[in-house]
Amino acid sequence: MSPDLLLDPQLKYWVLLPISFVMVLVGILRANVTQLMMPTPKLTPFKVLREKSFLRRAQAFRANNNVLNKEEFEGRQNYLIATLNSDHFYSEPVLDDDKPANPFSDPSTNDALMNMMKGNLMNYIPQTVIMGWINYFFAGFVIMKLPFPVTDSFKQMLQTGVATPDLNARYVSSISWYFVNLLGLRPIYTILLQDSSAVDQLMSQQQQQQQMPAIGGPGAPKVDKIYKSEADNLQLLTHESIFDGIVDRVLTLN
Number of structural domains, the chain? Predict the structure, then answer.
Protein backbone atom coordinates (compact mmCIF):
# COMPACT_ATOMS: atom_id res chain seq x y z
CA MET A 1 0.00 0.00 0.00
CA SER A 2 1.23 3.51 -0.85
CA PRO A 3 1.81 5.64 2.24
CA ASP A 4 -0.64 8.41 3.02
CA LEU A 5 0.51 11.95 3.73
CA LEU A 6 -0.85 14.22 6.41
CA LEU A 7 -1.32 17.52 4.61
CA ASP A 8 -1.39 20.82 6.46
CA PRO A 9 -4.86 22.39 6.01
CA GLN A 10 -3.16 25.77 5.58
CA LEU A 11 -1.75 24.61 2.22
CA LYS A 12 -5.03 25.31 0.49
CA TYR A 13 -5.03 28.90 1.78
CA TRP A 14 -1.36 29.72 1.18
CA VAL A 15 -0.58 27.65 -1.93
CA LEU A 16 -3.56 26.14 -3.75
CA LEU A 17 -5.90 29.13 -3.70
CA PRO A 18 -3.17 31.73 -4.45
CA ILE A 19 -2.05 29.78 -7.52
CA SER A 20 -5.62 29.52 -8.77
CA PHE A 21 -6.38 33.18 -8.03
CA VAL A 22 -3.22 34.45 -9.73
CA MET A 23 -3.88 32.35 -12.84
CA VAL A 24 -7.47 33.57 -13.13
CA LEU A 25 -6.39 37.18 -12.57
CA VAL A 26 -3.57 36.98 -15.11
CA GLY A 27 -5.89 35.29 -17.61
CA ILE A 28 -8.46 38.09 -17.33
CA LEU A 29 -5.76 40.76 -17.65
CA ARG A 30 -4.30 38.99 -20.66
CA ALA A 31 -7.73 38.82 -22.31
CA ASN A 32 -8.28 42.55 -21.83
CA VAL A 33 -4.80 43.49 -23.02
CA THR A 34 -5.24 41.25 -26.05
CA GLN A 35 -8.49 43.02 -26.90
CA LEU A 36 -6.75 46.40 -26.62
CA MET A 37 -3.89 45.25 -28.85
CA MET A 38 -6.14 43.92 -31.58
CA PRO A 39 -5.76 45.99 -34.75
CA THR A 40 -8.67 47.93 -36.19
CA PRO A 41 -10.36 45.85 -38.92
CA LYS A 42 -9.60 47.13 -42.38
CA LEU A 43 -12.34 47.54 -44.95
CA THR A 44 -12.06 45.14 -47.87
CA PRO A 45 -12.26 46.88 -51.26
CA PHE A 46 -15.49 46.34 -53.17
CA LYS A 47 -13.75 44.80 -56.18
CA VAL A 48 -12.06 42.18 -53.98
CA LEU A 49 -15.39 41.26 -52.39
CA ARG A 50 -17.02 41.05 -55.82
CA GLU A 51 -14.23 38.81 -57.10
CA LYS A 52 -14.65 36.34 -54.25
CA SER A 53 -18.45 36.56 -54.33
CA PHE A 54 -18.63 35.60 -58.00
CA LEU A 55 -16.40 32.58 -57.37
CA ARG A 56 -18.71 31.49 -54.54
CA ARG A 57 -21.66 31.93 -56.90
CA ALA A 58 -20.07 29.58 -59.44
CA GLN A 59 -19.29 27.05 -56.71
CA ALA A 60 -22.87 27.23 -55.42
CA PHE A 61 -24.22 26.59 -58.93
CA ARG A 62 -21.94 23.58 -59.32
CA ALA A 63 -23.18 22.12 -56.03
CA ASN A 64 -26.90 22.92 -56.31
CA ASN A 65 -27.84 22.87 -59.99
CA ASN A 66 -30.18 19.89 -59.68
CA VAL A 67 -33.17 22.14 -58.93
CA LEU A 68 -33.04 23.81 -62.36
CA ASN A 69 -34.66 22.68 -65.55
CA LYS A 70 -32.58 22.06 -68.66
CA GLU A 71 -32.99 25.56 -70.14
CA GLU A 72 -32.13 27.31 -66.88
CA PHE A 73 -29.14 25.01 -66.34
CA GLU A 74 -27.67 25.60 -69.77
CA GLY A 75 -28.23 29.36 -69.58
CA ARG A 76 -26.48 29.77 -66.26
CA GLN A 77 -23.73 27.32 -67.17
CA ASN A 78 -22.89 29.19 -70.37
CA TYR A 79 -22.95 32.57 -68.61
CA LEU A 80 -20.72 31.44 -65.74
CA ILE A 81 -18.21 29.72 -68.02
CA ALA A 82 -17.96 32.74 -70.31
CA THR A 83 -17.56 35.15 -67.38
CA LEU A 84 -15.01 32.97 -65.58
CA ASN A 85 -12.90 32.85 -68.73
CA SER A 86 -12.96 36.66 -68.97
CA ASP A 87 -11.47 39.30 -66.69
CA HIS A 88 -14.74 41.07 -65.95
CA PHE A 89 -14.73 40.37 -62.20
CA TYR A 90 -10.98 40.63 -61.57
CA SER A 91 -10.16 43.03 -58.74
CA GLU A 92 -6.95 44.07 -60.50
CA PRO A 93 -5.20 43.23 -63.78
CA VAL A 94 -3.39 39.89 -63.81
CA LEU A 95 0.20 40.04 -65.01
CA ASP A 96 1.63 37.30 -67.17
CA ASP A 97 4.80 37.20 -65.07
CA ASP A 98 4.98 33.79 -63.36
CA LYS A 99 7.72 34.92 -60.98
CA PRO A 100 6.54 34.23 -57.39
CA ALA A 101 5.82 37.37 -55.44
CA ASN A 102 7.81 38.22 -52.35
CA PRO A 103 5.42 37.60 -49.43
CA PHE A 104 7.05 40.33 -47.33
CA SER A 105 6.28 42.94 -49.98
CA ASP A 106 2.59 42.75 -49.04
CA PRO A 107 1.71 45.00 -46.03
CA SER A 108 -1.04 42.59 -44.97
CA THR A 109 1.54 39.82 -44.55
CA ASN A 110 3.70 42.01 -42.33
CA ASP A 111 0.66 42.97 -40.26
CA ALA A 112 -0.31 39.31 -39.85
CA LEU A 113 3.20 38.39 -38.72
CA MET A 114 3.25 41.26 -36.23
CA ASN A 115 -0.15 40.28 -34.79
CA MET A 116 1.01 36.67 -34.49
CA MET A 117 4.14 37.78 -32.65
CA LYS A 118 2.09 39.89 -30.25
CA GLY A 119 -0.22 36.96 -29.55
CA ASN A 120 2.70 34.64 -28.87
CA LEU A 121 4.26 37.15 -26.48
CA MET A 122 0.95 37.59 -24.65
CA ASN A 123 0.80 33.83 -24.14
CA TYR A 124 4.48 33.16 -23.46
CA ILE A 125 5.37 35.95 -21.02
CA PRO A 126 2.55 35.45 -18.44
CA GLN A 127 2.96 31.67 -18.44
CA THR A 128 6.73 31.96 -17.98
CA VAL A 129 6.33 34.44 -15.11
CA ILE A 130 3.71 32.33 -13.30
CA MET A 131 5.69 29.11 -13.70
CA GLY A 132 8.85 30.83 -12.42
CA TRP A 133 6.90 32.19 -9.45
CA ILE A 134 5.54 28.74 -8.59
CA ASN A 135 8.93 27.07 -9.03
CA TYR A 136 10.60 29.67 -6.78
CA PHE A 137 8.12 29.71 -3.91
CA PHE A 138 6.28 26.36 -4.07
CA ALA A 139 8.72 23.88 -5.64
CA GLY A 140 8.19 20.35 -4.34
CA PHE A 141 4.91 21.14 -2.53
CA VAL A 142 2.20 18.48 -2.36
CA ILE A 143 -0.86 20.67 -1.97
CA MET A 144 -3.94 18.46 -2.23
CA LYS A 145 -5.34 14.95 -2.47
CA LEU A 146 -7.97 14.17 -5.08
CA PRO A 147 -11.32 13.02 -3.63
CA PHE A 148 -11.56 10.19 -6.17
CA PRO A 149 -9.17 7.32 -7.03
CA VAL A 150 -6.95 7.49 -10.11
CA THR A 151 -4.61 4.97 -11.68
CA ASP A 152 -0.83 5.17 -11.52
CA SER A 153 -0.72 6.33 -15.13
CA PHE A 154 -1.72 9.79 -13.86
CA LYS A 155 1.31 10.12 -11.57
CA GLN A 156 3.45 11.82 -14.19
CA MET A 157 0.72 14.37 -14.86
CA LEU A 158 -0.33 15.02 -11.25
CA GLN A 159 3.00 14.81 -9.43
CA THR A 160 5.39 16.85 -11.57
CA GLY A 161 8.36 18.00 -9.51
CA VAL A 162 7.82 15.43 -6.75
CA ALA A 163 10.27 12.51 -7.02
CA THR A 164 8.35 10.00 -4.89
CA PRO A 165 7.57 6.86 -6.91
CA ASP A 166 5.72 5.20 -4.01
CA LEU A 167 3.35 8.12 -3.37
CA ASN A 168 -0.33 7.57 -4.02
CA ALA A 169 -1.36 8.92 -7.44
CA ARG A 170 -4.18 10.96 -5.89
CA TYR A 171 -1.77 13.56 -4.49
CA VAL A 172 -1.19 16.65 -6.62
CA SER A 173 1.95 18.79 -6.68
CA SER A 174 2.02 22.57 -7.06
CA ILE A 175 3.42 22.50 -10.61
CA SER A 176 0.83 19.94 -11.67
CA TRP A 177 -1.91 22.12 -10.20
CA TYR A 178 -0.64 24.94 -12.41
CA PHE A 179 -1.02 22.77 -15.53
CA VAL A 180 -4.47 21.59 -14.42
CA ASN A 181 -5.58 25.21 -14.08
CA LEU A 182 -3.96 26.13 -17.37
CA LEU A 183 -6.15 23.60 -19.20
CA GLY A 184 -9.29 23.70 -17.06
CA LEU A 185 -10.13 27.35 -16.36
CA ARG A 186 -12.32 27.82 -19.41
CA PRO A 187 -15.64 27.67 -17.44
CA ILE A 188 -14.32 30.30 -15.01
CA TYR A 189 -13.27 32.60 -17.86
CA THR A 190 -16.67 32.10 -19.51
CA ILE A 191 -18.47 33.22 -16.35
CA LEU A 192 -16.20 36.18 -15.64
CA LEU A 193 -15.69 37.50 -19.18
CA GLN A 194 -19.22 36.86 -20.47
CA ASP A 195 -17.80 36.69 -24.00
CA SER A 196 -17.32 33.39 -25.76
CA SER A 197 -15.11 34.92 -28.44
CA ALA A 198 -12.75 36.35 -25.83
CA VAL A 199 -12.65 32.99 -24.08
CA ASP A 200 -11.83 31.22 -27.32
CA GLN A 201 -9.03 33.65 -27.99
CA LEU A 202 -7.74 33.38 -24.44
CA MET A 203 -7.65 29.60 -24.47
CA SER A 204 -5.76 29.72 -27.80
CA GLN A 205 -8.06 27.34 -29.59
CA GLN A 206 -6.67 26.43 -32.98
CA GLN A 207 -8.79 27.92 -35.72
CA GLN A 208 -9.58 25.85 -38.76
CA GLN A 209 -10.01 27.80 -41.95
CA GLN A 210 -10.89 25.32 -44.66
CA GLN A 211 -13.01 27.44 -46.94
CA MET A 212 -12.62 28.72 -50.45
CA PRO A 213 -9.09 29.11 -51.82
CA ALA A 214 -7.29 32.37 -51.17
CA ILE A 215 -7.24 34.85 -54.01
CA GLY A 216 -4.51 37.36 -54.60
CA GLY A 217 -2.43 36.73 -51.47
CA PRO A 218 1.31 36.14 -51.69
CA GLY A 219 2.01 32.55 -52.64
CA ALA A 220 -1.66 31.88 -53.47
CA PRO A 221 -2.80 30.87 -56.98
CA LYS A 222 -3.61 33.80 -59.21
CA VAL A 223 -7.24 34.68 -59.75
CA ASP A 224 -7.15 33.80 -63.47
CA LYS A 225 -6.02 30.25 -62.70
CA ILE A 226 -8.69 29.81 -60.02
CA TYR A 227 -11.40 31.14 -62.31
CA LYS A 228 -10.32 29.00 -65.24
CA SER A 229 -10.17 25.91 -63.03
CA GLU A 230 -13.73 26.57 -61.87
CA ALA A 231 -14.80 27.11 -65.51
CA ASP A 232 -13.36 23.71 -66.40
CA ASN A 233 -15.31 22.14 -63.55
CA LEU A 234 -18.53 23.74 -64.78
CA GLN A 235 -17.81 22.56 -68.33
CA LEU A 236 -17.87 18.94 -67.12
CA LEU A 237 -21.28 19.26 -65.46
CA THR A 238 -24.22 17.29 -66.85
CA HIS A 239 -27.83 18.22 -66.22
CA GLU A 240 -29.61 16.02 -63.69
CA SER A 241 -32.75 17.57 -62.25
CA ILE A 242 -34.56 16.26 -59.20
CA PHE A 243 -37.82 17.04 -61.02
CA ASP A 244 -37.15 14.63 -63.89
CA GLY A 245 -39.87 11.95 -63.84
CA ILE A 246 -41.51 13.45 -60.78
CA VAL A 247 -45.04 12.76 -62.06
CA ASP A 248 -44.32 9.06 -62.51
CA ARG A 249 -42.72 8.86 -59.08
CA VAL A 250 -45.72 10.53 -57.41
CA LEU A 251 -48.18 8.25 -59.23
CA THR A 252 -46.13 5.23 -58.21
CA LEU A 253 -46.31 6.23 -54.57
CA ASN A 254 -50.08 6.70 -54.76
Answer: 1
